[in-house]
Write a structure and sequence with these properties.
By secondary structure, this protein is an all-beta fold. 1% of the residues lie in helices and 37% in strands. It has a single domain, classed as TolB, C-terminal domain (Neuraminidase, 6 Propeller), CATH 2.120.10.30. The chain is globular.
Length: 385
């Protein structure tokens, strides 16, 4: 495998002391200093090694023992990649997926106690009467590369014929709970359901491994779906647990308004009532406002967008990155690094913008960073090269 060293090269347009980027689509005033266009961090030299190649539309990746990895391909296959980068035959036992538009087989994660229970979790676009729903499932991975005891543990409670905005990430926790991020299916009519506590569009979901609501969920025993943790989200394609155990999520805005959030129980994050973006045709979102009493502001937002995908917190040997948030970008592509202090973003760096669309980001046991690209390659990044 060929390794090479490079630095983060960026587009030509700059703004104040932030990273170079394009002009904003909308003219909104941030709610607080540092909510967008944070100070540019010093450029990091990185070493890049090609780890695996030849996948078809990969979407999610999860670590297995012995330095192996599970990876999903959107058209409905899951494979194992061993420590050398060799890719297995497809794993048997997966349910059918609807891979039209932005759908398909999406995220994958493994149980925190995988060595004992062999449980695998995944999200996918499930074909149902009336269209499709975002679904979460689990199964047990056999040694012969087959999933058994496969069952859905959660389904969106309304079908849609839209082929857009399925979310979704899944995070099984050591306490037996499972986080699932969702979407609002994109259409002008359906996006309004992100504000409806009875409909699981545009929500963060918290359930047990068997699909039951968890004690402490804000709508448990009240009006609203009792699996919902927070509402008012658009299309949440990134989620990660911070070193302190707190969930962070990231979601696509329209033209502008990608958001980084730290979802709180019962929090309403505003979509589509408020947004720091505009519609793709240039018109206003709703009343054209970005702030409203009772609606939670994002920790950070981007305009123009980075089109965020998977993300992880860095926990490797390179001290300047320790605890930083690493986010895959689909547009313009590459990797976005955020330095966070006391719940606020204090610096941003862009890396590898010319390498393509990064769909997922994961740490290796050795402290490197794996980047899953839409074009089918997986690169290994080592900072400080």
């Amino acid at each position: 495998m060929r390794a090479f060293v490079l630095f983060a090269f960026l587009p030509a347009i700059t703004c104040a002391d932030g990273v170079p980027q394009g002009r904003a689509n909308a003219d909104f005033t941030p709610a607080f200093v540092g909510q967008t266009r944070a100070e540019a961090l010093p450029e990091t030299g990185v070493t890049i090694t090609r780890f695996a190649t030849g996948l078809t539309r990969p979407w999610g990746i999860a670590p297995l023992p012995d330095a192996a990895w599970l990876v999903t391909e959107r058209f409905g296959q899951m494979r194992v990649i061993d420590a050398t980068g060799a890719i297995s035959a497809p794993i048997a036992g997966l349910p059918a997926v609807d891979d039209s538009g932005q759908g398909g087989l999406l995220d994958v994660a493994v149980s925190p106690d995988f060595a004992r229970d062999r449980q695998v979790f995944w999200t996918y676009a499930k074909p149902v009467a009336g269209g499709s729903v975002t679904a979460a499932a689990r199964g047990v991975l056999d040694d012969d590369l087959a999933l058994r005891d496969v069952r859905d543990i959660w389904l969106q409670n309304r079908a849609s014929r839209s082929d857009k905005h399925f979310g979704s990430r899944i995070i099984p926790m050591a306490d037996g709970t499972v986080w699932i991020t969702t979407c609002e299916r994109s259409t002008r009519q359906e996006r309004q359901l992100a504000q409806d506590p009875d409909v699981t569009y545009g929500k963060i979901i918290r359930i047990t491994r068997d699909g039951a609501p968890v004690a402490g969920n804000p709508f448990l025993g009240q009006a609203g779906d009792d699996t919902i943790w927070s509402l008012g989200h658009r299309n949440v394609q990134g989620a990660a647990i911070a070193p302190d155990g707190v969930l962070w999520t990231i979601e696509h805005g329209p033209r502008g308004g990608d958001e980084l959030n730290m979802p709180q129980a019962g929090g309403n994050y505003g979509w589509p009532v408020i947004s720091y973006g505009i519609n793709y045709n240039g018109s206003a979102i709703g009343d054209g406002i970005a702030q409203q009493d009772g609606l939670v502001q994002p920790v950070y937002y981007w305009d123009p967008v980075i089109a965020p995908a998977g993300m992880t917190f860095y926990d490797g040997p390179y001290a300047p990155w320790q605890g930083d948030l690493l986010i895959g970008s689909l547009n313009p592509g590459g990797l976005v690094r955020l330095k966070i202090s006391q719940g606020r973003v204090i610096g941003e760096e862009r890396l590898l913008p010319d390498e393509g669309r990064v769909r997922d980001v994961q740490m290796t046991p050795e402290g490197d960073v794996l980047l899953v690209f839409d074009h089918g390659d997986i690169l290994k990044l080592t900072p400080g090269g």
